[in-house]
Amino acid sequence: MAAKSMYVCQSCGAEQRKWQGQCPDCLEWNSISEQATEVSGFRNQKISLGSALTPEPITAISSKDSPRRQTHIDEFDRVLGGGLVRGSAVLIGGDPGIGKSTILLQASALLAEHYGTVLYITGEESARQVHLRGERIDALHQDLQLTTSCDLEAMLTTIAKVKPHTVIIDSIQTTVTNQLTSAPGTVAQVRDCAAALINSAKTLGHALILVGHVTKDGSIAGPRVLEHMVDAVLYFEGDRGYNHRVLRAVKNRFGPAGEIGIFEMSDKGLVGIRDASKLFLAERAVDVPGSVVVACMEGTRPVLVEIQALVVPTVYATPKRSTVGVDANRVGMLTAVLERRVGIPLGTQDIYVNVVGGVKLTEPASDLGVVLAILSAFQEKALPADLVVFGEIGLTGEIRPVGAPESRAKEALNMGFSRLLLPRGNNTRVQEANIAASLRPSKQQTAWEAMPAKHLSEAVQLAF
Asked: First vs last Cα of the chain: how many Å apart?
């Protein structure tokens, strides 16, 4: 075999013939490093044929769901789609110290208590450190087997010997194989180690959970191919200034993508929060200009969040647009729509928009809330305290319908809000749900007042 050096981008995994300062594929700077490989002269060798596969008709394959093992942490199971599937591979990423190892240690102890042996392999901490954390959060169990190792071959041998139903690797970036000479955390090491561990999970039938480090921009460190290899990709989100954490499913082959679980960090570890809307609206001030409550959907869960805006005269030639929790480019577009279609002069105003509680909103249903918050701050006029809004805004000022309006309306009603400002295209479905709710006897208010609007100007008149 002839030795050969390859230049591989540590960000995207692209291979180059020579070293370059910038990767031509992902445009990252100083991400290309040299790696030693071996070439076996494939062109001069005869391809050996493998054994034939045994395909079967698709109609003969059972469509029953694979049995799941619940972690008995409701919010965690919610994000997983109901629990861990046998033979599945899950990748969990997040900032350092956000709670990845904590939630996995809690889940490991509960899985060991209900189902048997769980193997936890850590390559970053000592066994004593993990034990001390387990004592603090009450996550100790005899069937939770703990070991420390960074060697892939030792891990595979241990897994085959112990035969656990769940394996946790913390983390995949510290795992190395002696088949490669590259350093830990490089593209080749991460890709090959993950492929071997996933193949072991598919063959032996245990569930595999991999912990992944994140880069400075928040994505999983290593090549993006790692996210394509696993069955589910979960991200931990949160701000160190808040006690709550959000676990979001970016990809899930066994459940809905985009689902979130909300946790609160405490002395006993991460505690699931079922009533997320109450958490985000706990310190809300009513009758204050620039504040509006928006009904959003995170996966299949409706959540009420508060959007605040501040509008002040600018002291610079170019007005400032600053946002936290929403896309700045979208806020700039909505500001232009508000100025052009409603006639509000915002060209000389600095605009600041914030989503309270450290929440990040990505769905366009929050457009109407952003616009009304800006308008309320500009006019120094407070919106009604019992009003909840949702709707997408187009460039012509039209308010487009959004998904799951009934769930948003029911969540608003449960939180004590009685008026809904919504797109006219969603009014029929909301009214049908309203009639059904009014027929059910309840001590609380069982109906809401829907205010449908087709254009932004109409929504402004209804809101104020």
From this structure: 77
